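WARN no homologs supplied; continuing
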Amino acid sequence: MKNLIVIIGVFSLLLSGCREDFEDLEFEDWKPIIAIPLVSSEITVDDVLTELNHPEEVLILENGLVALNYKGELFSSSAESIIALPNQLFSESIVLGEAEVLILDNTGTVTPPTFDFPVNLNLSPADIMVSEVKFLAGDLTMSLTREQDEGVSGTVSVNELVDGDGQVASFSFSGSEALGVPETVSIDLTGYSLNPLIESSNEVNLSAFITFTNNEMNTAIEGDFVSIDFDLSNLQFEHIIGDFGNLSISAETDSIKLDLFENIQGGSFALTNAIFNFTVTNSFGFPSNIELGQVVSINENTGVQTPLILDDISLQGQEELGGSPEVGVFSFDNENSDVSSLFDPAPLLVVFNVTAVSNPGGPPPPTNLNFITNESAFDIGIDLILPLEGYALNMLVSDTVPLSISFGQSEEIDSIEFKLQMDNGFPADISFQALFLDSNKVVTDSLFVEQTLIMESALTDADGNVTSPSQTVNFILLEGERADSIKDTDFVLFRAVFNSSGAENQEVIRIKETQKVDIKLGAKIFGNIEL
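OK structure emitted
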């Protein structure tokens, strides 16, 4: 993700190309001097980025500037993760007093006054206030149990629970079950609505009109009673309307992994431009505030962590029940934040801490209450766009790759001379060293005596744009035992140091889609060989 990464890719492709050609290099008959062309190829920005990235992650911006695009879902919250309707169980009793007992024994029947008893809905979170719940599914089971040996009949109603026609849920009981055995009635709540009084703390009033009939074989006793149980279970809501208070919509930590930086070992590296685009899709019917908290980039190789504080994102919420979701794109770049500072230390991770809270401005007005449906969702997607412009100073990249070289029936090799020509259209230098390793990864030799410039930067103008390519030619001579011992190489440790043009003065260079490098690699092999 950066011009420097592009150059890394160029050399990675070069080295992998060289390795493959060597693996196929087998000759049964040798002349005393053999010249062998090994590589002649053109590598473009697209070649490098295709090698290092999935092609869908590459963008071409204005004026041909290349950028890398990392996409992901920062977090997602569904309706059931915000508000839940646990099972509800309420129990009440109707008790005969002294006066009711006298009437029952003397006249044979007694009807205590119709009673209402309030119950509070059990909601999660507990502090939300509800004015309407429409059920998608659920069961209401109501039971009446005689705890005395008198006849019982009557009706019990849930005043705030109505069906689609506005009829109150009401249940009739005959008292036909034996003493202590509950008489049970059930109802499917699909399509029912529950309308508690929001100003009375989610109260629901249960009403009962019960008539007791005297059992001539039994004397009524003060304290005799019947118990009534209400069980709401398997509840699923179609929608809920009310005042939801300050709900925590989400409190999550997520990250984007930047694989391109994983081999960077040291030096200075900086991108001078970066863009975060947060796309929010919100079908919750309440305003909310997204606190991005502290965004942190982490270089796991060096341990360097770089924080960035981004402004909060304010959302109004879906406007009306059954309407279209709220969709918004919120961008952070160098114009409104210091996002490019995150990418100075060549991080491997960018970590986001996200919290969203409902009703940040206080309770909703009575005429515009909050709402949520069973399909409501809250999603935040992120596009991290990194234009390849910036600078690198002594940026070190290393990697170890397997390498197998065969020279067939050769008896003796006196020397091998490589010629490497690089016609470079990228605005960066590469100095390079390769260490040859045996099967135990012990160093047996090196390609150069010391780190050597193999690719000189193209010329650039004052704006960091390439004006003309450069050409660099290197001759690499391996003589005697060094030449012969290359046959025993099992691995090569590459060490490349990158410097962009003008990096010591933090001059910015830019990678364009038209930039390329032409590579030619050949070898001369000298030896005494039996034919």
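Residues 1-31 have pLDDT under 50 and may be disordered.
OK
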